[in-house]
């Protein structure tokens, strides 16, 4: 048998000790397309949660209503934090396009801190409601409220973990094309969460304080 080896170009190599050359095939924009499909599935999840809240949002079971429970000032601060984090992520993407690693990482770090602050205030609100006896088991309204707002909070928490992971990858490998794709996917995810939160703020909190 021949000892010739096959290279990545399909040519025969004469050196028996030569290694197989393998090229990784990555479809152009394949990652972004796959992530768009994931976001569409996430849209369905939140659509179901919004629909459940629309049905159960006035089912107080003799308990407190949103007008009695919601602190709009706190929620407004939390909304401002999340919207501001979207702006800082935009600055990070602009710096990435300029191939400036350090400013990119700084803006990503600021985005992560704003996300942590958002989660802190959300947990504070949850703990306060539970302390007041308004836990998720109290009524259909509170069950659907905790499910919708809590699911959004879990997504933000996941986004923060993803962001921290990307910071380590950027520090180790720099602004490679792979890291650029990951930053773009996280950007879509983060802005998607902003859009969902605007819906939560309007549909749950603002409408919830109406008589």
TrEMBL record:
Highest taxon of source: Bacteria
Annotated NCBIfam families: CyoC (TIGR02842)
Protein name as catalogued: Cytochrome bo(3) ubiquinol oxidase subunit 3
Topology class, membrane: Multi-pass membrane protein
Keywords attached to this entry: Cell membrane, Electron transport, Membrane, Oxidoreductase, Transmembrane, Transmembrane helix, Transport
GO biological process, any: aerobic electron transport chain
Segments forming domain Heme-copper oxidase subunit III family profile: 1-209
Pfam families: COX3 (PF00510)
PROSITE patterns: COX3
Keyword DNA-binding found: no
GO molecular function: cytochrome bo3 ubiquinol oxidase activity; cytochrome-c oxidase activity
GO terms for cellular component: plasma membrane
Assigned protein family: Belongs to the cytochrome c oxidase subunit 3 family.
Subcellular location per the Swiss-Prot or TrEMBL entry: Cell membrane
Principal subcellular localisation of the protein: membrane
Complexes and interactors: Heterooctamer of two A chains, two B chains, two C chains and two D chains.
InterPro entries: Cyt_c/ubiquinol_Oxase_su3 (IPR024791), Cyt_c_oxidase-like_su3 (IPR000298), Cyt_c_oxidase_su3-like_sf (IPR035973), Cyt_c_oxidase_su3_a-hlx (IPR013833), Cyt_c_ubiqinol_oxidase_su3 (IPR014206), Ubiquinol_oxase_su3_dom (IPR033946)
Transmembrane segments: 33-54, 74-92, 104-121, 141-168, 189-210
Biological role stated in the UniProt entry: Cytochrome bo(3) ubiquinol terminal oxidase is the component of the aerobic respiratory chain of E.coli that predominates when cells are grown at high aeration. Has proton pump activity across the membrane in addition to electron transfer, pumping 2 protons/electron.
């Amino acid at each position: 048998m021949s000892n010739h080896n096959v290279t990545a170009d399909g040519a025969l190599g004469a050196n028996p000790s030569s290694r197989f050359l393998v090229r990784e095939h990555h479809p152009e924009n394949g990652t972004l397309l796959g992530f768009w499909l994931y976001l569409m599935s996430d849209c369905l999840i939140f659509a179901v949660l919004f629909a459940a809240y629309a049905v159960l949002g006035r089912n107080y079971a003799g308990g407190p209503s949103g007008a009695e429970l919601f602190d709009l000032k706190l929620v407004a601060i939390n909304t401002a934090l999340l919207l501001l984090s979207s702006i800082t992520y935009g600055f990070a993407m602009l710096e990435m396009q300029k191939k400036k690693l350090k400013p990119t990482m700084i803006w990503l770090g600021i985005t992560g801190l704003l996300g942590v602050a958002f989660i802190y205030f959300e947990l504070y609100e949850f703990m306060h409601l539970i302390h007041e006896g308004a836990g998720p088991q109290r009524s259909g309204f509170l069950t659907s409220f905790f499910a919708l707002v809590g699911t959004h909070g879990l997504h933000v928490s996941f986004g923060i973990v993803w962001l921290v992971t990307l910071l380590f990858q950027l520090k180790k490998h720099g602004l490679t094309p792979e890291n650029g794709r990951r930053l773009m996917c996280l950007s879509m995810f983060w802005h998607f969460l902003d859009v969902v939160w605007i819906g939560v703020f309007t549909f749950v909190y603002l409408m919830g304080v109406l008589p």
